[in-house]
Amino acid sequence: MYSVVSSEKTPDIDCTDSATPTITKDESSPENKEKTENETEDPGGKQEEIEQPEELVTFKVVYNKKKYDVSFSMDSSIAKLKQHVHTLTGVPAAMQKLMYKGLCKDDQTLRDLKVTKSAKFMVVGSTLNDVLAVSAPDPKELKKEEAAAATALKEPLCKQKLHKKVLDKHGKPDDIIPGIKNNKQPLPLVPISGMYNKTGGKVRLTFKMELDQLWIGTKERTDKIPMGSIKAVVSEPIEEHEEYHLMGIQLGPTEASRYWIYWVPAQYVDAIKDAILGKWQFF
Fold first, then answer.
1. Is residue 183 very low, low, confident or very high in pLDDT (cuts 50, 70, 90)?
2. Which of 1, 187, 210, 257 has the fewest CB atoms within 10 Å around its CB?
3. What is the sign of the dihedral through the CA atoms of 260, 264, 266 and 270?
4. Mean pLDDT of 101-125
5. Looking at residue 253, what is its pLDDT?
6. What is the pLDDT of residues 127-176, one digit of tens each?
7. Host H or E run for residue 159
8. Which residues, listed in sequence order, are joined to residue 207 by a DSSP beta bridge?
9. Alpha-carbon distance 198 to 184, whole Å?
10. Could you tell me the pTM of the whole model?
């Protein structure tokens, strides 16, 4: 009887623990995906907040008939916009007045003003070069002004001969706006009336901020004066009627060009000066 022996070798079987099959997790399975996402969550169960992109609005800035396209955040303040306008126009922020449906305040935001796409901001102001280009006053005129100023220091405006004569002759107007002493209010939405000039003619002041003009109206005519051409505004309370002021608006280079207005309500005096000259004044 014959026995057949195979020439092939039987492979050795390793019975150690390493022979135990290894199971690999399928990362693409739905269960593992869910687990991976859960592992990336914050330990407290809070997910990271996604930062919202800021809301921008595109509008135009107009200065000296030049138009600039500007995109700005709705939550940015007018003070910040003025800094940007400085880079565009060369007008320092402190010397700017921005107009959008009226005079804009530094602490207002574009959202507060409800600025919309294609809106227009008007810039009023002068560059430093423009200011420095103003010619120096004539020495003779300067001496006259100094002499007049020295005289004025001796007595209040309402007691000076010119003004006392006007006040005594025309008295207090019948249609005068009630004045409030030691009070500051913004310009009213309507013209300021009930005053008169040195001839006794009725005067009303209208502020056209969008045009950068002061309109001085009388019965005979209305003078439309660019605010940038006004050199100074002076005022003093009228003695025994401190709720009203006597005001001089200087239209030319010397004090002789002052347009005098009597019985200006005291609560509007500061607002008038700010509107005409701005907070930055150059004398």
1. very high
2. 1
3. negative
4. 91
5. 86
6. 766 655 554 556 676 667 666 666 655 678 888 888 999 999 999 999 99
7. none
8. 214
9. 26
10. 0.49
Tokens of 199: 């001839």
- Cα separation, 85 vs 98, in Å, equals 10
Residue type, 140: K
Q: Where are the alpha helices (DSSP H) in 68-134?
A: 78-89, 128-132
Residue matched to tokens 């005096």: 269
Are 264 and 235 in contact by the 8 Å Cβ rule? The answer is yes
75 within 8 A of 53, measured Cβ to Cβ? no
At 221-247, the pLDDT tens digits run: 999 999 888 999 999 999 999 999 999
Separation CA 34–CA 41 (nearest Å): 11
Q: Is 98 helix (H, G, I), strand (E, B) or coil?
A: strand
Other beta carbons less than 10 A from residue 139's beta carbon: 8
The first and second tokens of residue 63, run together, are 């200065």
Q: What strands lie across the sheet with 66-73, from one edge to the other?
A: 66-73, 56-63, 120-124, 97-99
Tell me the one-letter amino acid at 63. Y
Sign of the Cα torsion 211, 212, 218, 223 reads negative
Residue 20 has pLDDT above 90, yes or no: no
State how far the Cα of 22 lies from the Cα of 30, in Å rounded to an integer.
21
3-state secondary structure of 210: coil
